[in-house]
Each structure stands twice: as C-alpha cells, then as structure tokens.
Design brief:
By secondary structure, this protein is an alpha/beta fold. The protein has one domain: NAD(P)-binding Rossmann-like Domain (Rossmann fold, 3-Layer(aba) Sandwich). A seven-stranded parallel β-sheet has the order 3-2-1-4-5-6-9, with helices on both faces. Strand 5, helix 5 and strand 6 form a beta-alpha-beta unit. The longest helix has 27 residues.
Length: about 260
C-alpha cells in the first residue's frame, strides 16, 4: 500500500487543478493530491504528455486532462468552463506550469524575454484570476492557490527573465492573499531550489552535474519533497498560513553559487 502524508481522505470530495501536471514536479503534486482523495485536473500544452500522465496517475484516483497554453486568456476561460462542467467545483489551484532557459541577461532576445514573462508571469495571472472568478469567489469554502516559483532570494543571475517573472508572482502572492482573504482564499508560493525533475533536461548536462556540490545539503531536491510541501500548504493543516513564500532549496538561498559569473 502506498504511504500517505496525512489521512488518505484529507481532500475527499475536493477538486484540484495542477497546471503543468503532466510532468516532473506537477506530476508528483497531482499524485499527492490523488493519494489524499482529491479529483485532479492536469492541464498543459502537450495533449499526448497529458494522456500519458493520466495513465500513470489513474491508479490513484480520478484524473481529467485539458490541453491549453496558459498564455492565452480565452483558452484559460475555456478550461474553467471545462472544470465546471466535469467536476462542478474547484478547491485548489496549483500554478506549476512554467519554464525558462539559461542566458546571460545581455544576450536575451526580445522574443526570449517575452516568452518567459508571458508564461511565468502573465500565464500564471490569467489562470489565477479566471479560476478565482469562476470558483473561489462563488464558494463559501473559498479555495487555495499555490504558486510554484523559483529560488530568487538573491535575484536570479544567469536567468534574469525568470527571476523577474517569479518575483512578480511572489509579490502577487502577497497582494492577493490580502485582497482575497475575506473570500476564504489562501494564497501561498513555493520556491524550489534545484529539483531532480524533467525540467532539468533543458539545461546543459555539465551544468546539472556540478550543481549538487554547490548546494549546502549537497544534493538536489526531489519532486516528492516539493509535492508534500504543496499538499501541506493546500490542506487545512495550513489554514492560518497565507501570503507566505516557502523556500525548499537545501539551504541554497543562503549560500553557494550555482555557476560561475564572469
Ligand atoms: N526542476 C527545478 O529544479 C525547478 C526549480 C525551480 C522551479 N521550477 C519550476 O517548477 C515548475 C515545474 O518544473 P519541472 O522541473 O517539473 O519542469 P517541467 O517538467 O518542464 O514542467 C513544466 C510544465 O509546464 C508546462 N508548461 C510550460 N509552458 C506552458 C504553457 N505555456 N502553458 C501550459 N503549460 C505549460 C509543461 O507542459 P507542456 O510542455 O505540455 O505545456 C510542463 O508540464 C516550473 O514552473 C519550473 O520552472 C523547477
């Protein structure tokens, strides 16, 4: 039997949306929610990836997939309608979809900059506002929003575009936590350091190989460690926590450099 962090009926009858839930950290978060009784909707661009993920997740509970690009507000609205029609409610939003690429700030093209900002800042906002309007504002029970950002504690030299976008979401987390507190909506962020996940495939292998030695704990984080933190923040056990950003980084925000700067 698979071990659960809390009682397996913790989220029974509840529904969660995990953007980017078809791979890596999002897949682990989806599994964690399913193991605790929730129905889970996973959404991202690649329909085939979503269907493959659904096959692996279905042994744990009810999973729906929806293919969309979070950068397109009209697609995001259609996702909310899909959730209303299939599940009738939504209790938890995990904004996990995102991506970036390593580049010196001086070399980032306008298109590269816009792609990263549009996904990680604008896309996250489109999903957040749409889901809050469609579900959380209307439900007495409100809802939870957990934003997966990055460890930007000391800026993000080497990936300035995503540092800027995620700092925006970090600040948005605080604004919304207060604006929406009276609607029973809790808004928090999780800032992972380097996590052993599919996202690392986008980075040069030699960069990934040397990175563990730069982390105070001398190892990468696991997707399950991030997923368990997200589950906790989404659960009633974190009922008095809002507007918080929790770093899960083996101490990296305080010490060490991932790579050498010129
Ligand atoms: N791994 C790490 O070390 C690390 C550290 C800090 C933060 N993070 C962040 O954690 C999140 C998950 O990372 P991961 O490592 O698990 O990487 P990943 O497997 O590449 O996950 C990113 C997910 O986002 C989806 N996505 C990307 N752009 C999208 C868009 N425009 N619309 C809809 N979905 C989109 C992707 O699916 P499709 O391709 O199907 O769209 C994919 O499932 C990301 O936001 C990442 O930046 C990761």
């Amino acid at each position: 039997m698979t071990k659960t962090m809390f009682h397996s009926d913790l989220l029974q009858g509840q529904v969660a949306l995990v953007t980017g839930g078809g791979s890596g950290i999002g897949l682990a978060i989806s599994r964690e929610f399913l193991l605790h009784g929730a129905t889970v909707v996973i959404a991202s661009r690649n329909a085939e990836r979503l269907e493959n993920a659904k096959k692996t997740l279905e042994e744990y509970g009810i999973v729906y997939t929806y293919a969309l690009d979070i950068r397109k507000p009209e697609s995001v609205e259609a996702l909310a309608t899909f959730i209303q029609e299939t599940c009738g409610r939504l209790d938890h939003l995990v904004n996990n979809a995102g991506g970036q690429f390593p580049a010196a700030a001086a070399d980032i093209s306008p298109n590269g900059w816009l792609a990263v900002i549009n996904t990680n800042l604008n896309g996250t906002w489109f999903v957040t506002q749409s889901i809050a309007r469609h579900f959380f504002f209307k439900q007495e029970a409100g809802g939870t929003i957990t934003n997966i950002i990055v460890n930007h504690y000391r800026g993000f030299p080497g990936m300035a575009h995503t540092g800027a976008a995620r700092a925006g979401i970090d600040n948005l987390t605080k604004s919304l936590a207060i604006e929406w507190v009276s609607k029973n909506i809790r808004v928090n962020a999780v800032a992972p350091g380097i996590i052993n996940s599919t996202g690392l495939e986008n980075y040069p292998p030699e960069m990934v190989a040397q990175v563990a030695g730069t982390i105070p704990m001398k190892r990468l984080g696991t997707v399950d460690e991030v997923a368990q933190l997200v589950l906790f923040l989404s659960s009633s056990y974190a009922g008095y926590i809002t507007g918080e950003t929790v770093y899960i980084d083996g101490g990296s925000r305080l010490w060490g450099s991932m790579w050498q700067m010129e």
